[in-house]
Amino acid sequence: MDKQTITIYDVAREASVSMATVSRVVNGNPNVKPATRKKVLEVIDRLDYRPNAVARGLASKKTTTVGVIIPDVTNIYFSSLARGIDDVATMYKYNIILANSDENGQKEVQVLNTLLAKQVDGVIFMGNQITDSIRAEFTRSKTPIVLAGSVDPEAQVASVNIDYVEAIEEATNTLIRHDNQKIAFVTGSLSEPINGQYRLKGYKKALAQAKIAYDPNLVFETEYSYKAGEAIWDRVKAAGATAAVIGDDELAIGLLNGAGDDDVNIPNDFELITSNDSKLTEISRPKMSSITQPLYDIGAVAMRLLTKMMNKEEIDNQTILLPYGIVERGTTK
Amino acid sequence: MDKQTITIYDVAREASVSMATVSRVVNGNPNVKPATRKKVLEVIDRLDYRPNAVARGLASKKTTTVGVIIPDVTNIYFSSLARGIDDVATMYKYNIILANSDENGQKEVQVLNTLLAKQVDGVIFMGNQITDSIRAEFTRSKTPIVLAGSVDPEAQVASVNIDYVEAIEEATNTLIRHDNQKIAFVTGSLSEPINGQYRLKGYKKALAQAKIAYDPNLVFETEYSYKAGEAIWDRVKAAGATAAVIGDDELAIGLLNGAGDDDVNIPNDFELITSNDSKLTEISRPKMSSITQPLYDIGAVAMRLLTKMMNKEEIDNQTILLPYGIVERGTTK
DNA sequence: AAAAGCTTTTAAAACGCTTGCATTTGTTTG
DNA sequence: CAAACAAATGCAAGCGTTTTAAAAGCTTTT
User: Which keywords are on file for this protein (chains A, B) (predicted)?
Assistant: First the structure.
């Protein structure tokens, strides 16, 4: 009934060699006489033999598959990283098992476990919160893990990022230089280290340097979403801010549109700088000034780092910081 | 050295039962005496045993993994579908191997083959062109396949979509009702059936009904990208169009911004309707009128259909059409 | 208390490949 | 030309599960 699947054994028989030899030619092992290789290759072609990766994985204990845990593919920030990850994965002959986690700690643990059960050779984790339970799973397994665009304050697990402190500091400085005194800081949950520790620190540093008092009423904690941005505009306005540094592009464009719909002239009456320099910054009107960071590359470098770890190569530096910059577009004077 | 991996065998020994029994309790097979089940479960817990999915896959010939071929995760249209796919996959205990194809026929074939080598239980394919080589691979394998948001003119392979002909016809009609005589049709390559056969047909039908002559100079073939949209504005304008139906949201927002930057008043001087009702339609200013289609659901339903096929359930209808609508927002009068 | 019929459990054969070790074949060398 | 070494191949033991057929235990029935 079923299309009889043909195995390495069939090839071996037809080519009158051993399975070992067939395996060698399939894997490009050089210890095969060219004539033999040719003969085997012909049979493989004739029978249309396709090696079974599952059997391969079981025998070799390598699946050439890596797990990618992503909060939400639909968010351009993460999908940009994912694209970088996938491209270099492909380059190194790995496949990606993609799993959405919704930044939900429980799901993250769950998903991580099924990935490990599937014997992935490594995992790339995106998500702003390394909860204790996740960290526990990380350390429990011998599988290499790297964080992409996420930060581990303990610096225990490998990661690739930009320097969030400095980046936000510089963005805030830009706004200060433009004579803003009341600068809002709006971002995701402050319980996420990237916000509560890194970005906030940069924001405060810039203020301190300019001798501007830090005002907790100017920091806004919300979701990374367009709607949240639109919704928070009123509060930002009410707080008397004349500018804002924002931690996410979707959030920023929401705020921008919220202000615009409220007939606020941007950048004259209100300035803003966002954080991720995704496609969205070019799509909005005015275009958004932003911290620039190489999203694709963060993913790509993270995956590259992971390949090294999977290969048990010596790693000189576990936590890689990629360069960032600031582009001023239409939302700053 | 290596953390000694513990296997089903270890559990069997510790619980003094056979591997078969352990396997049964792990798989929830009812033929196990409650007392035995409990004993085994305790040992599993104590040893922290995790079944090896690869071995499982080899023995059972099921990997509970499906392959997803996507042109580009970074495109909101596709990532929305992907999100739907992943969610129901998770619901049915499947994992997703995600592979970017760049709509490139060669890559598609390549990727499909590695997915099949990995013994995925099914495949979801997104991409607007079912080339002959892809079709050949499809039919060659016994693995179930369904198209999501992509169309197979031959209707050989299962798919879930909306009725593109009618949808575009209706969108065009809307523009005609608003007294536009010169309506541009801008979309991706016409060699893709979705454009060249379906959408174009709907466009022409609407024109014919309104007794407006079809003018090939008003159809624009380009890429699905923001840049392409911006770039094509000049040509659309030069052609004298007063409105446009557009096949992709990124493309549409590009065109919209292109027009806006050219000081054209939208919707008064130029109207447009886009096709996918993604997040972008709410993000643009003015917000874009659009054909509404349930992107998430298309993915979800496609995956659901696939689960049925993998389960060898009887399928009543291979090609599912989901309902669409039209929302008029700010880019139409 | 033996026969019959269930319910549980076990033994062991797959599943399709990789890989360490042994063997065979081929090539140099002294 | 035998010895020594290198290259090419083969053997067979895994890899960690599932699954089928058979065996073992229990209950009922008679």
Answer: Activator, DNA-binding, Repressor, Transcription, Transcription regulation
